[in-house]
Amino acid sequence: MTAESPSVSGSQPQPVLSPLTSAAIFLVVTIAPGGEEKTREVLADLRSLERAFGFGVPEAALSCVAGIGSDAWDRLFDHPRPIGLHPFRPLKGSRHSAVATPGDLLLHLRATRLDLCFGLATEIMNRLRGAVILEDEVQGFKYLDARDLLGFVDGTENPVGTAAREAVLIGEEDPGHAGGSYVIVQKYLHDLDAWNALPVEAQEQIIGRTKATNLELDEAASHAKLNTVLGPDGEEQKILRDNMPFGSPGRGEFGTYFIGYARTPEVTERMLRHMFLGTPDATHDRILDFSTAVTGTLFYAPSADFLDHLPALPTSDAKAGVLAAD
Predict the structure, then answer these.
(1) Does the annotation mark 154 as catalytic?
(2) What's in the keyword line of the UniProt record (predicted)?
């Protein structure tokens, strides 16, 4: 590790734009007191670990994205904080709430084979033993033809190609963090008994799409419409969703792990405000009557260049200054 700052121009992003795969593991941890150096060592080695586990099976597309939480940033790096990095902002609506839960480090692993995700996650957590506390772990899977457990296709509106890069990767608005991305995660648990008791037509009105053919419906209060965010010029602002179903039939647990990458957290936060606090067309997103958010955290995924050339640890004086400012 060196104390040099990452390059501003041409910064190589982490694999946030990798295609959706059939398997994923999501790990959220907090850093224990004194665990900063070991955490930094793992972050610096992340690319080599990823290559080691994925080298023999390149067709499996193994990748791992690391995100840093707001509280952890000033403990790990003597480097200016990304301008949009802050703690997840909880929302309390008239009927439903988006909770904020602890998280200093997000690890988003994905591949076409779960065993590769499992092997890499095991090695990472072994190296972090004693330095972090596990807050959440979810193993996701592709369900049927890219559907969630509610039975609808998920991620239809994801941008692709150049549009995806523009929607997800930080540019000149924060040149010290070019190539990075913000990521919000939430774990939703579904009441499938109540959901499946609804007629298909009612489900379609809530989602805003047909169940069989995935065609969008003209339903102003639907989940699809509430998650449409427009910019100042009326253009639609996109995020990249890598949501995955998860569950345990034996325990009766069924859910969706929401993970949204964006160039600014404001786009995703506006979507969540529409869902939980409502709009002129709806008091809330009716999908929340059947899906409960049990976690919520905001992270910043720095560029791969940043991880390859980590800034120095903050000095004791710098840490004291941050605490005084807080």
Answers:
(1) yes
(2) Iron, Metal-binding, Oxidoreductase, Peroxidase
Q: With contact defined as beta carbons under 8 Å apart, do 257 and 138 qualify?
A: yes
Whether the CA torsion 279, 285, 288, 294 is positive or negative: it is negative
Asked whether the beta carbons of 119 and 49 are under 8 A apart, the reply is: no
Q: Give the pLDDT of the chain (326 residues) as one tens digit per residue.
A: 333 333 344 589 999 999 999 999 999 999 999 999 999 999 999 999 999 999 999 999 999 999 999 999 999 999 999 999 999 999 999 999 999 999 999 999 999 999 999 999 999 999 999 999 999 999 999 999 999 999 999 998 999 999 999 999 999 999 999 999 999 999 999 999 999 999 999 999 999 999 999 999 999 999 999 999 999 889 999 999 999 999 999 999 999 999 999 999 999 999 999 999 999 999 999 999 999 999 999 999 999 999 999 999 998 655 544 544 45
**Residue 95 tokens, joined:** 């009927």
Q: Could you tell me if 254 and 190 are in contact, meaning their C-beta atoms sit under 8 angstroms apart?
A: yes
Range list of H helices, the chain: 36-54, 70-76, 114-128, 161-168, 192-196, 200-207, 223-226, 265-277, 304-308, 316-325
| Burial of 248: CB neighbours in 10 Å, binned 0-12, 13-18, 19+ | exposed
pTM of the model: 0.93
Residue partners of 51: CB distance under 8 A and separation at least 6? none
**Helix or strand or coil: residue 58?**
helix
Length of the chain counted residue by residue: 326
Task: State the catalytic residue, choosing from 154, 242, 305, 308.
Answer: 154
Q: What is the three-class DSSP state of 320?
A: helix
List CB contacts of 286: < 8 A, sequence separation 6 or more: 206, 221, 223
Question: Tokens for 131?
Answer: 């330095």
Q: How many CB atoms lie within 10 A of CB 61?
A: 17
State the amino acid at position 319 in one-letter form: K
